[in-house]
C-alpha cells in the first residue's frame, strides 16, 4: 500500500486492533520516508452469489432494504434494521465461507427478524420460502405459537437456546 502523502511504496505498521464486532482489523501505519501516518482497515472479503449467477460483495445496506419492505407499517426503525444487518453479517461470516448464495442470506435473516417483529417475519418468510397457500401461513404461525408456549414455561430469557 502506497503512502497517501508521498506515494512511497512501503509502510510500517505501528498499531493494529480488532474492531468491536470482531469483523475487521484497523492498522495504524507510518511511512518510513516522510513520516506520515495513516490507517487501513482490513476485512475478509465476503461475496454473495445472486440467483442470476451474478457475484457481488456482501452489503448490509442490501440486507436492510430487503427487510425494510417486509417491515412496512411495523414499529421497526432504521436502527433496528442496522442491528439486524450486522447480526446477519456476523452469522454469515461465522460460517467461514468467503462466498454465500442469497438463500443463505435469507436464512440468516429469518432468526433475528423473528425476534424483531413477528408480522414482518411472516411477510419475509412468505416471500423467501415461497408460501403458496393459507396452510403455509398457518403452519408458520403454529410454529411461532408453539415457541411462545415453550417460552412461557421456560421463562422469558433465551427460549431458543
Ligand atoms: Zn510518505
From TrEMBL:
A matching Pfam family: ATP-cone
InterPro entries listed in its UniProt record: ATP-cone_dom, NrdR-like_N, RNR_NrdR-like
Domain ATP-cone: 46-136
Cofactor(s) annotated in UniProt: Zn(2+)
Keywords for this protein: ATP-binding, DNA-binding, Metal-binding, Nucleotide-binding, Repressor, Transcription, Transcription regulation, Zinc, Zinc-finger
Entry's Gene Ontology BP terms: negative regulation of DNA-templated transcription
This protein's record includes keyword Metal-binding: yes
Cofactor binding summary note: Binds 1 zinc ion.
Family (UniProt): Belongs to the NrdR family.
Name of the protein this chain belongs to: Transcriptional repressor NrdR
UniProt source species: Microbacterium immunditiarum
Source species taxonomy: Bacteria, Bacillati, Actinomycetota, Actinomycetes, Micrococcales
Amino acid at each position: 500500500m502506497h503512502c497517501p502523502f508521498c506515494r512511497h511504496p512501503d509502510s510500517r505498521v505501528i498499531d493494529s486492533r480488532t474492531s468491536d464486532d470482531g469483523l475487521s482489523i484497523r492498522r495504524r501505519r507510518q511511512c518510513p520516508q516522510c513520516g506520515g501516518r495513516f490507517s487501513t482497515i482490513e476485512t475478509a472479503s465476503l461475496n454473495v452469489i445472486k440467483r442470476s449467477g451474478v457475484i457481488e460483495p456482501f452489503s448490509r445496506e442490501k440486507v436492510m432494504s430487503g427487510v425494510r419492505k417486509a417491515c412496512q407499517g411495523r414499529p421497526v426503525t432504521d436502527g433496528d434494521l442496522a442491528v439486524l444487518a450486522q447480526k446477519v453479517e456476523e452469522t454469515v461470516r461465522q460460517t467461514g465461507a468467503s462466498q454465500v448464495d442469497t438463500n443463505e442470506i435469507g436464512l440468516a435473516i429469518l432468526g433475528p427478524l423473528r425476534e424483531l417483529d413477528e408480522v414482518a417475519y411472516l411477510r419475509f418468510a412468505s416471500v423467501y420460502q415461497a408460501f403458496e397457500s393459507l396452510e403455509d401461513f398457518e403452519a408458520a404461525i403454529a410454529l411461532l405459537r408453539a415457541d411462545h408456549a415453550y417460552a412461557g414455561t421456560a421463562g422469558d430469557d433465551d427460549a431458543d437456546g
